[in-house]
Amino acid sequence: MLEGLRETYPGTINAVRFGRGGKGPELGGHNSLPFHDFEATRPGRPWLALEVVDGEPEDWTAPVLKPYGDAVASPARWAARSAREYGPDMIFLTLNSIEQGSAFAEIAARVAATVQAVDIPLAVYGSGDRDRDVPALTAVAEACRGTPLLLGPVTRDAHKELAEVARDLGHAVIAQSPMDVNLAKDLNIRLTKILPADRIVIDPLTSSLGYGLEYSYSTMERIRLAAIVHDDRMLQMPIIGRVGKEVWKTKEAAQDTTRGVWWEAFTAATLLLAGADLVTLRHPDSIALVKTMMR
Amino acid sequence: MILIGENVQILAKVVSEAIQNRDARPLQDLAVKQAEAGVHYLDLNIGPARKQPEETMGWLVDKIQEVVDTPLCLDTTNPVAMEAGLAKCRRRALINSANGTAASREKMMPLARKYDADIIVSVLNDAGIPHDAASRAESILETVEYANGLGIPSGDIWVDPIMMPVAVAQPQAVEVLEFLKMLPELVPGARSTVGLSNLSNGVPTRLRPFLNRVMLVMAQRVGLTSAIVDSFDRDLIGLAGGKPRQMVDLVYRAMDGETVDLASLSPEARDLYKTTRVLLGHELFSSSWLEL
Question: A192 to chain B: nearest residue by CA?
Fold first, then answer.
């Protein structure tokens, strides 16, 4: 009876492979709309990442840092502790130290140590300043050759340099465009002239609940529908929602940690429903809550 | 296909400076060159003309009529400027434009009767720009009925379905085509026009003509009788005249759903075919659409 109501779709999301030699876990790789595993011939499960920073965690409030204790002094220890205690699928390392003036070689050494400290995939995110990100991420990419990282942000302006580095050294990239399905596609067309499509993740930018989440939702939904229903190859990349950073800068979250956890978990859950394949979170209670919801 | 040249328009820096300084030469040059390019009307767009509306449009019409005899399409949202311009036109003018909003019905529309001019009437109404073919139809039926009541015959009305930028609202291109197909039954005797270049707003300059050209061919096929265009796009003007024939036919074949082997096409034809697919909604738009 229900059999007849199932839809099948032409499009499949690319599987981005991690782990040494690319033999680790896969992000994406499914062929249904979000949580429609009953319709999928290749079911998938979104990834939950925990955020970590190197350098000073300037944009983190004390209550969100507290669960990680003194591990926050070192990204390798912080990442190891998060991975061990809270079970994320990925560590999302933001390089605060780029803006804080660290030498690129030091930054790269810290990232390499972090890679050694965890056995789950690592994303490494720059400052958004192209002039500093390109050399910093290039140093990181070289230091971590052999272990695929997810490097970003790659924007239209600096896409060539970073895509070439990722191509040559075996990493994947986060392609960032400002909340627009057409611009996301445009950047992917440009990137796939340099990199294989299965080494790209789309970041259409995230806003938090109460601060324009509807726009993020709508953009992600359009990207996902184009990819799955309309089989648009230039949008069949996994989507990332960078939730933690956006949520914890709101006054609602900053003023009340319990409320912040719910704010973070529901922003993440909403984006997962829209089609995100990977969301980044800061508070351990949020990841627990999202895991519960997904079950 | 009646072509209305868009190049005297206030958003162009050379035009806004010339109007501001009352420097007629650059404007007259533009008018002469457009007329030579073969367009049938010249659009004179002075925007809302908040300062000295009467004096500005009156001066512009005078200066343009000194050098060309091409009929004029007066383009302002300011009815005071519009009336001043209409009073000066030697040939039957085209009002650009009126719409279904209360303000436009009251102030702009009566000028068509008073000055015996043709009038562009868009599907805009107080609810905004309609989002599909059916609501465009509903809006224009009401507005035309009102205009007819003022004594403006449908034959003097040029219906504008409002072309939206493909980079912002890709599905609207198909809605415009659907609406144009319906128009002869909706408003028998009416003509039609579109501000073609708006389609490619926000697209890199080099790529804009591809979209404009293909849309013109498609819209003409479904009944569009005129368009406001870039007078200096020679290929566009050629296509409006049905040339080259094989290019026009290629767009038609794509419209008819024929699958064309890209490898069999010349680079120019390939670009045209890819653009047709984007405008028909078969391929999600991105400004790298020709590179796919």
Answer: B292
